[in-house]
Amino acid sequence: MNAMTAAHRTLPFGTHVEVTNVANGRTATVRINDRGPFVGDRVIDVSRAAARELDMIGAGTARVRITVVSEPVECFYVQVGAYRNAESAQELANRYRVRREDVQVHRTDGMSRVLLGPFDSRAQAERDRTENSGILRAC
Fold it and tell me: Where are the domains of the chain?
């Protein structure tokens, strides 16, 4: 919420995009770290920090232009939990969020997976995996 991040349906995790509010010309560079939005014709959901930069907090939505700045060369996550019960996954994610911002819950194949990252290098992900007793996953 307080990091410069966003959700996009198809761009690879770790991709950096410049988002421009076409109404006022303000821009924000964000990192794609989640999937979505899944509402109507929206193409990107930005974090509160990015929305503040784009001056769209009051309106909640805005017409934007998206430009890819860079795509990740490598991308890894550390999975620290997988649950059929989405509430259990959220509880674990909330415990991790007390000490870090890069926590996500991805829902696929009927499972809710609690992921840390993304990490731009395998070595960085391996260190985090060891510290958190997790499983290494590619993006």
Answer: 5-70, 76-138
| Contact criterion met (CB below 8 Å) for 7 and 53 | no
User: What is each CA distance from 62 to 10, 40, 69, 89, 108, in whole angstroms?
Assistant: 20, 13, 20, 31, 29
Q: Please report, for residues 6, 18, 49, the alpha-carbon distance to residue 89 in angstroms, rounded to integers and kept in the order given.
A: 21, 31, 25
Name, in order, each residue with C-beta under 8 angstroms of 29's C-beta and a sequence gap of 6 or more: 4, 16, 17, 18, 19, 69
SS3 94: helix
Rounded CA-CA distance 93/136 in Å is 17
Strand bridging mode 64-70 / 45-46? unpaired
- More confident position, 120 or 127: 127
Class of domain 5-70: mainly beta
What SS3 state is found at 103? strand
Residue 107 burial by Cβ neighbours in a 10 Å radius (0-12, 13-18, 19+): exposed
Q: What is the pLDDT of residues 27-51, one digit of tens each?
A: 999 999 999 998 888 999 999 999 9
The CATH number of the domain covering residues in 76-138: 3.30.70.1070
- Supply angle C-alpha 131, 134, 73, rounded to 5: 90
